[in-house]
């Protein structure tokens, strides 16, 4: 309810129009009981047809006007939530796409999806019909006052039923709150299980994990269905109480009214009209009491959304160089994941001049991918600085910086868009000749020629349905489209065939010849033949830094090839 009040107060002019429309609607609603009273007391008593015609004409005009005002009010009520709902949906997605990576990763992916999906609960709660139902609630007292003028005893009966139904609705809404929270939490668990079942089908089948996953789904389904049944039962109880109260109130009004008629204190027309007024008075309260569950879901969704809104965002603005030359320096650089006492590395000091090559090596889990993400600005150092052409990376505009980098992550993800849109995403101004040159360079031409739609071929499921080699080639093309001065490649030859590996080495060699600064993350120390600097993340906590000239580097590379060939023969 606080959210609805906030929305109404934010639009004072519109809210005033809604209140005025509500006043006219409820005043015009008096026409029906007055018509009944007049027909019974005047026409039936005297039988004058012109009286019936006049009364009928009047009530029909009133009903038509009431209908028109209701339509206008509904349109106005839609405007109350249109802006806030759109703003919330856009804001939620903005946080997901702009939040600092380290902070966002503290929230489980399933929970993020549930938070954004929860906007639907908010939209359902504050739709036009529910807003108008809430606006009618105060007018229950208006009908009680009119009934008081007709017969005080009847108004007291109606007031008692109104209080009873209202209290039942409030208590019902409060009792639903704990289970609503649990349903929200279990919704995230269910999303995770569904994601596993749909994306990791091969894993489930290959390792006979179907029974395990089905058992987990069965437990989840039973738990969430039990909660939902409880919520449905509580909502049903409130609805039943409202309906039963309406019936009991009608019995009480007719019974007491009949006694008053027999006692000569009231006529039959007033009794029937009073029953209609009583029904009008209770109707808004009954509708409102049944909205408890809907508002409870919206309240939980908004609370989760507010938590998401506290996640810090990446900078939208920052410094930018006229032209990045390609130098990069690490000063006392350290990184520790939140909640861990052990740093991935620390006290790294190293400067790379433009055109130099750095190989960051280490075993799986040593921190190579973390190092790459630091370079892109996805993560922030726990201590120290990364300087690019002397400027602190944390002061640079992220969007500008990522256009200066040729970046190929270890596990590249794609957008659900066409292949061309994926390649151009960070370089929308890339011309057709450059695009085609990149496609040939990464070896995508054959795949595109064999695809009916070529560059317009849609990527679905973020590219996970493509072979890993094709996905990496598309990602490599996307990286090359920036033509940046810094090249950051994480495990460049992973999952590529011999042609792909040769293409990658050719691309890296070409970029080195063009004076690009190259940083390669690889578990193979001899991945580079030429002179380069080596950072060994296996050495903890301060990485070992060494330099290899061309001869030593080539010898190391040949040794690595022999070990690899030997391992392949042994297997």
How much is the radius of gyration in Å? 35 Å
* Spatial order of strands in the largest sheet: 6-7-8-3-9-10
Low-confidence stretches: 567-571
Strand composition percent: 5-15%
Structural class: alpha/beta
Largest sheet: 6 strands, mixed
The number of E-state strands comes to: 10
Q: Report mean pLDDT, rounded to a whole number.
A: 85
What is the first-to-last residue Cα distance? 68 Å
Quaternary form = single chain
Tally of helical segments: 22
Shape: elongated
Helix content: 55-70%
Fold and architecture overview:
With 571 residues, the protein is of the alpha/beta class. Helix content is 64%, strand content 9%. The protein has 22 helices and ten strands. The chain has helices spanning 2-10, 12-28, 31-46, 49-98, 101-104, 109-117, 119-125, 128-136, 139-150, 152-199, 201-206, 210-262, 268-289, 292-309, 368-376, 398-402, 419-424, 432-442, 445-450, 468-480, 498-513, 550-570; strands at residues 328-335, 345-352, 357-361, 383-388, 391-392, 405-408, 486-490, 517-521, 532-536, 544-548. The strands form two sheets. A six-stranded mixed sheet has the order 6-7-8-3-9-10, sandwiched between helices. A four-stranded antiparallel sheet has the order 2-1-4-5, with no helix packed on it. The longest helix has 53 residues, at 210-262. The chain is elongated and about 115 Å long. The two termini are 68 Å apart. Residues 567-571 have low confidence and may be disordered.
């Amino acid at each position: 309810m606080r959210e609805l009040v906030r929305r109404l107060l934010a639009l004072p002019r519109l809210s005033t129009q809604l209140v005025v429309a509500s006043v006219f609607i409820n005043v015009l609603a008096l026409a029906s009981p007055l018509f009944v009273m007049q027909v019974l007391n005047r026409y039936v008593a005297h039988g004058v047809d012109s009286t019936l015609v006049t009364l009928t004409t009047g009530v029909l005009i009133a009903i038509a006007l009431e209908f028109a005002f209701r339509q206008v009010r509904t349109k106005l009520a839609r405007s109350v939530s249109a802006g806030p709902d759109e703003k919330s949906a856009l804001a939620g997605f903005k946080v997901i796409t702009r939040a600092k990576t380290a902070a966002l990763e503290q929230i489980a992916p399933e929970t993020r999806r549930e938070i954004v999906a929860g906007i639907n609960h908010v939209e359902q709660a504050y739709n036009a019909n529910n807003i108008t139902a809430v606006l009618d609630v105060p007018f229950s007292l208006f009908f009680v006052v009119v009934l008081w003028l007709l017969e005080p005893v009847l108004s007291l009966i109606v007031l008692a039923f109104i209080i009873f139904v209202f209290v039942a609705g409030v208590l019902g809404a409060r009792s639903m709150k704990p289970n609503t929270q649990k349903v929200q939490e279990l919704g995230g668990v269910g999303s995770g299980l569904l994601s596993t079942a749909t994306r990791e089908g091969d894993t489930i089948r290959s390792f006979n994990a179907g029974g395990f996953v089905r058992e987990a789904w069965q437990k989840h389904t039973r738990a969430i269905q039990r909660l939902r049944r409880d919520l449905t039962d509580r909502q049903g109880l409130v609805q039943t109480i409202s309906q039963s109260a309406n019936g009991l109130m009608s019995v009480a009004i007719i019974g007491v009214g009949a006694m008053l008629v027999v006692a000569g204190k009231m006529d039959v027309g007033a009794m029937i009209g009073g029953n209609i007024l009583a029904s009008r008075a209770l109707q808004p309260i009954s509708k409102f009491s049944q909205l408890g569950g809907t508002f409870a879901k919206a309240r939980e969704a908004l609370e989760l959304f507010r938590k998401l809104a506290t996640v810090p965002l990446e900078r939208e603005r920052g410094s930018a160089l006229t032209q990045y030359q390609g130098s990069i320096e690490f000063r006392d650089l350290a990184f520790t994941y939140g909640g861990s006492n052990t740093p991935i590395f620390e006290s790294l000091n190293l400067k790379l001049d433009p055109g130099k090559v750095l190989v960051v090596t280490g075993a799986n889990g040593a921190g190579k991918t973390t190092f790459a993400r630091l370079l892109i600005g996805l993560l922030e150092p726990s201590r120290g600085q990364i300087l690019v052409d002397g400027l602190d990376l944390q002061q640079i505009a992220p969007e500008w910086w990522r256009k200066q980098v040729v970046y190929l992550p270890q596990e590249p993800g794609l957008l659900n868009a066409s292949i061309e849109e994926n390649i151009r995403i960070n370089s929308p101004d890339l011309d057709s000749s450059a695009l085609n040159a990149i496609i040939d360079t990464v070896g995508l031409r054959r795949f595109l020629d064999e695809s009916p739609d070529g560059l317009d071929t849609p990527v679905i499921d973020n590219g996970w349905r493509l072979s890993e080699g094709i996905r990496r080639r598309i990602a490599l093309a996307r990286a090359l489209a920036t033509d940046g001065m810094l090249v950051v490649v994480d495990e460049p030859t992973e999952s590529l065939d011999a042609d792909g590996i040769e293409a990658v080495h050719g691309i890296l060699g070409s970029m080195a010849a063009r004076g690009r600064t190259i940083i390669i993350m690889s578990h193979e120390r001899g991945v580079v033949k030429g002179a380069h600097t080596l950072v060994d993340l296996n050495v903890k906590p301060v990485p070992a830094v060494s330099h290899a000239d061309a001869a030593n580097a080539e010898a190391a590379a040949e040794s690595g090839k022999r070990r690899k060939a030997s391992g392949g023969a042994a297997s």
